[in-house]
């Protein structure tokens, strides 16, 4: 029998696991590319021109998205596990963090 | 909802000796009908060899839980109209437990883990002492009260994917029991409880996915109980006291 389990907390768990695995697969690649900065700067520059391509841009967006999802998912879990707050308190705290993140990131993006 | 006079009910048949296979029955539909009524109708009118289990029929005993359209449920208090998929229902034995036969799951592993989690009474007094007065408003008592209505139905245990992936995991109900006793002023051995739930397969195996709390028919919250155990065991590890 197919098991039905798509409730919000389970989906959050799935997202966290998939983003974590995605990051684990990506990081070695990331460090390998960065190593060219030390060993072969020309090669790194050649590689970085690639990042102008739309497909690679999309992939980059995906990775930053994975990290953001995993970071906030991880903070959510840490809050859930370590702060014995009531459900409404947690909702308000999450809303406050998300709101301030939105404002400060918009500010940062404007500034650079 | 369209008028219908029959339901198409698929039940899983089989057990250790015969592989599980689905069998479909047409069952008369009524306005007020529980999933347990449907299963009983099949056993009484269509196939007397269908094996299933129930006792109280009113959500007290915890013996009637089955998978219904992929979700573990207490069948005696689950109305057909709430779970109908089109005109069909699929009923199977509880997940994550061995099958005795057909719809009857073997609850032994579930209860064995209840004991492994020190879900047993460690008395503070003997029968010769006066009964201890309990203050109902303390934080500890309220934490303990939150979990005492568990009917041992194993719905949470069947819903939990960590149990599915890790046979040693004690599971939500046993861990919730441990947390209840840990907060009980009448329990004399809190350290034994924390020892039992901090090893392999203990509370730290839980991934907080919350299927236990979502599906518990008594609206209990094993997830929060497990989070409590995580804090208590971690505090003890770093030398903190309760
Ligand atoms: C950005 C800061 C990060 C935070 C706050 C964080 C937090 C967490 C937490 C709390 C868990 C436990 C989840 C659970 O119990 O199910 C976890 C799991 C995991 N993390 Fe991270 N993490 C971070 C970065 C990373 C990075 C960079 C990687 C990749 C190397 C990664 C890979 C994983 C994987 C594979 C899991 C297992 C997923 C699971 O158990 O479901 N994490 N993370
Ligand atoms: S919260 Fe923990 S015990 Fe409950 S279903 Fe998820 S893993 Fe299982
Ligand atoms: S916690 Fe809820 S779902 Fe789990 S055994 Fe107890 S009553 Fe059943
Ligand atoms: S028959 Fe007792 S809980 Fe369903």
Automatic annotation (TrEMBL), chain A:
<protein>
    <recommendedName>
        <fullName>Succinate dehydrogenase cytochrome b556 subunit</fullName>
    </recommendedName>
</protein>
<feature type="transmembrane region" description="Helical">
    <location>
        <begin position="20"/>
        <end position="38"/>
    </location>
</feature>
<dbReference type="InterPro" id="IPR000701">
    <property type="entry name" value="SuccDH_FuR_B_TM-su"/>
</dbReference>
<feature type="transmembrane region" description="Helical">
    <location>
        <begin position="59"/>
        <end position="79"/>
    </location>
</feature>
<dbReference type="GO" id="GO:0009055">
    <property type="term" value="F:electron transfer activity"/>
</dbReference>
<dbReference type="Pfam" id="PF01127">
    <property type="entry name" value="Sdh_cyt"/>
</dbReference>
<comment type="function">
    <text>Membrane-anchoring subunit of succinate dehydrogenase (SDH).</text>
</comment>
<keyword id="KW-0812">Transmembrane</keyword>
<keyword id="KW-0479">Metal-binding</keyword>
<dbReference type="InterPro" id="IPR039023">
    <property type="entry name" value="SdhC_prok"/>
</dbReference>
<dbReference type="GO" id="GO:0006099">
    <property type="term" value="P:tricarboxylic acid cycle"/>
</dbReference>
<dbReference type="InterPro" id="IPR034804">
    <property type="entry name" value="SQR/QFR_C/D"/>
</dbReference>
<keyword id="KW-0349">Heme</keyword>
<feature type="transmembrane region" description="Helical">
    <location>
        <begin position="91"/>
        <end position="109"/>
    </location>
</feature>
<keyword id="KW-1133">Transmembrane helix</keyword>
<comment type="similarity">
    <text>Belongs to the cytochrome b560 family.</text>
</comment>
<keyword id="KW-0472">Membrane</keyword>
<dbReference type="GO" id="GO:0046872">
    <property type="term" value="F:metal ion binding"/>
</dbReference>
<dbReference type="GO" id="GO:0016020">
    <property type="term" value="C:membrane"/>
</dbReference>
<keyword id="KW-0408">Iron</keyword>
<dbReference type="InterPro" id="IPR014314">
    <property type="entry name" value="Succ_DH_cytb556"/>
</dbReference>
<feature type="binding site" description="axial binding residue">
    <location>
        <position position="70"/>
    </location>
    <ligand>
        <name>heme</name>
    </ligand>
</feature>
<comment type="subunit">
    <text>Part of an enzyme complex containing four subunits: a flavoprotein, an iron-sulfur protein, plus two membrane-anchoring proteins, SdhC and SdhD. The complex can form homotrimers.</text>
</comment>
């Amino acid at each position: 029998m197919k098991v039905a389990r798509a409730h919000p907390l389970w989906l959050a768990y799935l997202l966290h696991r998939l983003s974590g695995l995605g990051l684990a697969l990506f990081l070695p690649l990331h460090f390998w590319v960065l190593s060219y900065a030390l060993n072969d700067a020309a090669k790194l520059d050649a590689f970085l021109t690639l990042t102008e391509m739309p497909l690679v841009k999309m992939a980059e967006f995906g990775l930053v998205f994975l990290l953001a999802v995993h970071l906030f998912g991880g903070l959510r879990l840490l809050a859930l596990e370590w702060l014995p707050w009531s459900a409404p308190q947690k909702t308000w705290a999450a809303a406050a963090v998300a709101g301030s993140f939105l404002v400060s990131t918009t500010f940062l993006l404007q500034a650079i | 909802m369209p008028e219908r006079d029959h339901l198409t009910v698929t039940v899983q048949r089989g057990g250790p000796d015969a592989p599980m296979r689905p069998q479909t029955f047409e069952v008369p539909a009524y306005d007020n009908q529980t999933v347990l009524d449907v299963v009983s109708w099949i056993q009484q009118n269509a196939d007397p060899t269908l094996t299933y289990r129930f006792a109280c029929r009113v959500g007290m005993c915890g013996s009637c839980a089955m998978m219904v359209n992929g979700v573990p449920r207490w069948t005696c208090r689950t109305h057909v109209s709430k779970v109908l998929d089109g005109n069909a229902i699929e009923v199977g034995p509880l997940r994550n437990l061995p099958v005795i036969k057909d719809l009857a799951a073997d609850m032994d592993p579930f209860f064995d883990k209840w004991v492994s989690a020190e879900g047993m009474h460690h008395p503070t007094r003997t029968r010769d002492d006066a009964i201890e007065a309990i203050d109902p408003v303390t934080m500890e008592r309220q934490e303990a009260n939150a979990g005492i209505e568990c009917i041992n139905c194993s719905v949470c245990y069947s819903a939990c994917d960590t149990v599915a992936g890790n046979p040693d995991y004690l599971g939500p109900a046993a861990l919730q029991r441990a947390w209840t006793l840990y907060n009980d002023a009448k329990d004399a051995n809190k350290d034994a409880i924390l020892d039992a739930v901090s090893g392999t397969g203990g509370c730290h195996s839980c991934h907080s996915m919350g299927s236990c709390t979502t599906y518990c028919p008594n609206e209990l919250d094993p997830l929060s109980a497990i989070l409590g155990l995580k804090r208590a065991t971690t505090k003890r590890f770093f030398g903190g006291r309760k």
